[in-house]
Amino acid sequence: MAHLDTRAKLAILADAAKYDASCASSGTAKRNSVGGKGLGSTEGSGICHSYAPDGRCISLLKILLTNSCIFDCHYCINRRSSNVRRAKFTVDEVVRLTLSFYKRNYIEGLFLSSGIIGSSNYTMEAMVRVARTLRLDHDFRGYIHLKSIPDADPALLDQAALYADRLSINVELPTVEGLGKLAPEKDAVRIRTAMSGLKAGIAENKEARAKYRSAPKFAPAGQSTQMIVGADAADDSAVVASASSLYGKFGLRRVYYSAFSPIPDASAVLPLVQPPLMREHRLYQADWLMRFYGFGVAEVQGATDDGMLPLDIDPKTAWALKHREQFPMDVNLAPREHLLRVPGLGVKAVNAVLRARRQRRLSLADIGRLTRGIEKLRPFLIASDWRPVALAERDDLRPRLVKAERSQLELFG
Amino acid sequence: MPTVTLAAPDDFDGWRDAARALVAGSVPPSQVTWTVAGEAGDLLGGDSALPPATAPSFSVPKAFIDMARRVVCNAEPERFALLHAALAQLRTRPKLLEDTADRLVNRLYLLDKGVRRDVHKMRAFVRFREVEDPGLPYGDERFAAWFEPEHHIVRLNAGFFVRRFAQMRWSILTPEQCVHWDTQELSFTPGAVKADAPDGDPIEATWKTYYAHIFNPARLKVNAMTKEMPKKYWKNLPEASLIPDLIAGAAERTRGMIATPSRDAAPAGAIAELRAEAAVCTRCALYGPATQTVFGEGPADARLMFVGEQPGDQEDLAGRPFIGPAGQVFDRALAAAGIERSSTYVTNAVKHFKFEPRGKRRIHAKPGTAEIDACRWWVDNERLAIKPAVTVALGATAARSLTGKTVTISKERGRPLPLPDGSELWITVHPSFLLRIEDRTQAEAEFERFVADLQAIRERVAALA
Question: Does the predicted interface ipTM exceed a cut of 0.85?
Answer without folding.
Answer: yes
